[in-house]
Amino acid sequence: MREKVFRDPVHNFIHVNDPLILELIDTREFQRLRRIKQLGVANTVFHTAEHSRFSHSLGVYEVSRQIANHLERFASQAPGDGGWQVEERRVLLVAALLHDLGHGPYSHTFESIFKTNHEKFTQDIILNKTTEVHQVLMKYDEKLPAKVASVIAKTYDNKQVVALISSQIDADRMDYLLRDAYYSGATYGTFDLARIIHLMRPVVDGIAFEQKGMATVEDYIISRYQMYEQVYFHPVSRGIEVVLTHLLDRAMELYQDQQKKQISIDNFVTPDLKPLFEYSVSIEQYLDLDDASILENINLWRHSSDKVLAELSMRFLDRKPLKSIEISPKTRHYLSKIRPLIEEAGFNVKYYTAENDSFDTAYDLYHPEAKHAKTQIEMLQPDGSLAELSTQSSLVKALTGRSYGNARYFFPAEMLMEQTTGDLMAPVYQEFQKYVHNGALIGIYPRNSD
Fold first, then answer.
1. Within 13 Å, how many C-alpha atoms sit on residue 226's CB side?
2. What is the pTM of this model?
3. Are 184 and 49 in contact (CB under 8 A)?
4. By the 8 A CB rule, do 403 and 361 touch?
5. Which of 337, 324, 303 is nearest to 445 (CA)?
6. Ramachandran region, residue 185 (left: φ > 0; alpha: ψ -120 to 50; beta: rest)
7. Do 289 and 270 form a contact (C-beta atoms < 8 A)?
8. pLDDT tens digits for 208-239?
């Protein structure tokens, strides 16, 4: 086939010269990703962050295509020599394209409420005989669905392929850091992609990076650190996520309560969302879900007779996030002082407050005993030996294992109101604010009476 080119603001051009890839892009399951935002509610803070999982998945494919082209220079010459096996190119590119196929709308909130797992759904969609994706893969190679699903599951026997899709420096992360930085306007999320690819070398059971390019790898680590600090853990988007979590929780409670009382529930949720509320959703039903599915229901709930559900829906749709303060182990016990004040102000703390911890590590060593062990970044020495990154970089060593992010307590913005003339709750707000200083929870701050 003639090469097809997609224009892309991050990679400039995305090249497709494999008819299999083009057929997969045209499937119903992949096209659905156009209707799911990559960053969920982050567009309420970074207003241009409207990009989709479709564009990200195409980007991961393009990064993997460039990597595969580069690794062909280091093709295996003998079994077990650690060289790149050129025949793995197709598995790599298909896995890159399809790695996010199972994401639901507002993914992380969605998964916690409805008990789903996007990686499991990705594998199921690929393996299910009724999906277009499965049928396209089977047309080209009957073993391809199982191979691609095992890459997603991280059980594929070629560890180089797995590392390129899922590791501390993989095609997925490299695209989403660049793409999220571009669409959020956060330029500190950029790094030299071309240089990183140039530094890649296949080794036994993985991928390493040439020692001479350590500064480029360090730049990537810092970029990831900055994106998590400034974009992914932004307190306002976390405040919107808390609202979304609580309103879905409240909707679930009302739905289950109506079921117990055998009250008609047909009009409470739309038909496409109903299977989720019953924790019994088929692949076919799951594929009907996108961001619009959630928004349609929240629009309905905005007019609910249940005041909590209606008010939370309004806050979500009209961008009224919960405010937050930072909490620490030393000050957490003061929450027992401010919760009653929030209740006194007329807010149910179950639905209008939350403790939300968002932490990650800039770089972590490999701990095989950990539940989700991270692969470590290996630097290829001039003599052919491998050295773990933090042993070579004092900068990365300083970041290794260090958590960033913070723990925050979320509550209604009304609690921070200062101009409260005529408001009966003014004394309650003032008492609450005694426990807040410089955006953090404290003991009562000794304010100057002057």
1. 18
2. 0.92
3. yes
4. yes
5. 337
6. left
7. no
8. 999 999 999 999 998 988 898 889 889 999 99
